[in-house]
Design goal:
By secondary structure, the protein is mostly helical. 65% of the residues lie in helices and 2% in strands. The protein contains 23 helices and 2 strands. The protein has a two-stranded antiparallel ribbon with strand order 1-2. The longest helix is centred in the C-terminal third of the chain and has 30 residues. The radius of gyration is 23 Å and the shape is globular. 43% of the residues are buried.
C-alpha cells in the first residue's frame, strides 16, 4: 500500500490485512480542528503573550539559551520566528500541532469514530484548547508531544500496527515536542516504569521503542544546549528546593533554623518567604542567584529532609495540592488561561483590538473562580480518568495508558514544580475533559437511539 501524506495514512492491521482507518472522517476532522485553531488565532491575532512568552522571544533575538531543558524550545522559536521578529508564526504553528495531536489521540482512544470526531471538535471550541493553543508557551507543544506519544502507545496496547512510516513520524514529532521542557525526560522515565508494571515487557521492549525516544530526548538536549550563564541554569534546576528552604525558614524559630541548616539566625529573614509554601518564592536570597549560593541549595535541602521530612511533604502539598485528587486535594486557585499581551511596549499588539476585547470575554469566563476551580483542578481530572480506566468500557486499555501518562506528569510536578500552574498539567486536564465529553455524548446518543426504537 503506497505511503501518502502521513496525516491521511494512519492504518491498522486487522486479520493480516492493512486498511485505512476512517480516512475520510479523520481528514475532515483534522481540517475542522485546524480550521478552528486558525479561527482562534485570527480572532486574537497575534495571540496571547505572558512574561514567559516575551522571555522566549528575547532568547530568540539574543541567541542565548538560559534554561538547558528549554534549549530546543528556544531553538524552535528562533528559527520559526526569524530571530524573534515574527512570534505569531510560532503561535499559529504550535496551535495547529496542538489541535492535530488532540485529534489523533481522540481517534486512537475511542472506537466510535463519529463520536470521537464530535468530541474533538467541541473540545477545540473551548478556551482550554483554543485559547491555550494560541498562547506562546512551551507547555503547548510539550502537551501536544505527550498526546502524540500517548496515541502511539495506545495503538501498541491495542495490538495494532505501529511499524508504518506514518506512526513513526507521529512518534518523532511527539518526541521532539517533549524536549521543549526539562521535565520531559523524567516524565518519560516514570511513564516507562508504570507501563512496565501495568503491561509488562510486551510494551516496553517492543522494537526498543522507549530506549530510542528517551535517548533521542537526552541527545537533543545535549546537542542544543547553549548558555552563557551556568549559574542561572543551575538555579533553575534547584528552584523547587530553594522554595522548600524558604518555606522552612518562614515557619520555624531561629534555634531550629540554626540547628538544622547550620546558618546564623541573622540570615533567617533573608531566606524566609511564606509565599514559597504556597506559590512563589519571594525571599531576598532567591534574587541573588550567585554561584556559591546555588551550590549550597542541595546540601541545605538534604539537611531539612533528614531532620523534618514532614515539613517538606507539607510544603509540596500546599504548593501543588491541585495535583491531588479529591477528597485530599483542594479546589484549584491557580493561574489557568492567559488572555492578554503582558507588555504593551514590545511591539506586539492586537490587530483588531475592539473585536478581540469582545471575544476575550469567552476565555475569561473559564477563569471565573468557581468554574476555574473545577476546570483547572488536575487532581480531579486524574481521578476521573482513573474511574474510567478501571471501569468496564470498550476503550479500557487506551484509557489506562492515558491514566499512566497523567499520573507520571503529576508525580514529577508534585516533586519538582517550582510554582502551581494549571498549564503544567494541561495534558491531564484535557485528557480528563476529553473522556468525560465522549462518555457524555455516548450516553446521549444511546438515549436518543432508545427513544427512536420505542417510537418505531
Amino acid at each position: 500500500m503506497q505511503f501518502k501524506f502521513f496525516l491521511c495514512c494512519l492504518w491498522v492491521e486487522s486479520e493480516n490485512k492493512k486498511i485505512y482507518i476512517v480516512n475520510t472522517l479523520l481528514k475532515k476532522t483534522l481540517y475542522w480542528n485546524c480550521g478552528l485553531a486558525l479561527t482562534w488565532f485570527l480572532l486574537f491575532y497575534p495571540g496571547f503573550y505572558s512574561t514567559d512568552s516575551f522571555s522566549a522571544i528575547g532568547n530568540a533575538s539574543s541567541g542565548k539559551w538560559l534554561v538547558p531543558g528549554a534549549s530546543e524550545w528556544n531553538f524552535f522559536v528562533k528559527i520559526l520566528s526569524f530571530n524573534g521578529l515574527f512570534p505569531q508564526i510560532v503561535v499559529i504553528i504550535q496551535a495547529l500541532i496542538f489541535n492535530f495531536a488532540l485529534t489523533i489521540l481522540t481517534f486512537e482512544l475511542f472506537n466510535n469514530k463519529r463520536l470521537a470526531q464530535r468530541t474533538s471538535v467541541i473540545l477545540c471550541l473551548t478556551p482550554t484548547v483554543g485559547a491555550m493553543g494560541i498562547t506562546l508557551w512551551r507547555d503547548i507543544p510539550f502537551t501536544a508531544g505527550l498526546m502524540l506519544i500517548c496515541a502511539y502507545i495506545v495503538r501498541m496496547v491495542n495490538k495494532t500496527s505501529v511499524s508504518n512510516l506514518g506512526s513513526w513520524l507521529l512518534l518523532l514529532i511527539g518526541t521532539v515536542c517533549l524536549t521543549f521542557k526539562q521535565s520531559g525526560l523524567p516524565t518519560m522515565v516514570v511513564f516507562n516504569i508504570l507501563l512496565f508494571l501495568t503491561f509488562g515487557k510486551r510494551i516496553v521492549n517492543t522494537k526498543t521503542l522507549f530506549p530510542v525516544f528517551i535517548a533521542l530526548i537526552a541527545t537533543l538536549q545535549l546537542l542544543l544546549y547553549n548558555t552563557s550563564d551556568k549559574t542561572l541554569v543551575k538555579s533553575y534546576a534547584v528552584e523547587w528546593m530553594f522554595s522548600d528552604i524558604s518555606c522552612f525558614a518562614s515557619v520555624v524559630d531561629g534555634k531550629k533554623f540554626q540547628r538544622v541548616l547550620g546558618l546564623d539566625t541573622s540570615s533567617q529573614g533573608e531566606w524566609a518567604s511564606k509565599e514559597a509554601c504556597t506559590f512563589l518564592n519571594r525571599s531576598n536570597k532567591s534574587n541573588e542567584r550567585n554561584g556559591f549560593l546555588v551550590s549550597q541549595i542541595p546540601s541545605l535541602w538534604t539537611k531539612i529532609v533528614k531532620q523534618d521530612p514532614q515539613l517538606i511533604l507539607d510544603s509540596h502539598y500546599s504548593r501543588n495540592s491541585y495535583l491531588i485528587p479529591p477528597p485530599f486535594g483542594r479546589l484549584a486557585q491557580i493561574p489557568f488561561i492567559h488572555t492578554n499581551i503582558e507588555f504593551a511596549d514590545r511591539g506586539i499588539n492586537w490587530l483588531f483590538p475592539e473585536t478581540t476585547e469582545i471575544f476575550r470575554n469567552y476565555p475569561r469566563a473559564w477563569n471565573w473562580f468557581p468554574l476555574r476551580s473545577i476546570l483547572a483542578w488536575s487532581g480531579l481530572w486524574l481521578l476521573i480518568i482513573l474511574i474510567f480506566a478501571i471501569g468496564k468500557t470498550d476503550d479500557l486499555r487506551g484509557i489506562k495508558v492515558v491514566f499512566l501518562m497523567a499520573l507520571s506528569i503529576s508525580i514529577i510536578l508534585f516533586v519538582s514544580a517550582p510554582i502551581p500552574d494549571a498549564r503544567y498539567a494541561l495534558f491531564t486536564i484535557i485528557a480528563g475533559q476529553l473522556i468525560v465529553l465522549f462518555k457524555l455524548l455516548s450516553f446521549m446518543e444511546k438515549k436518543l437511539n432508545s427513544r427512536k426504537q420505542k417510537r418505531d
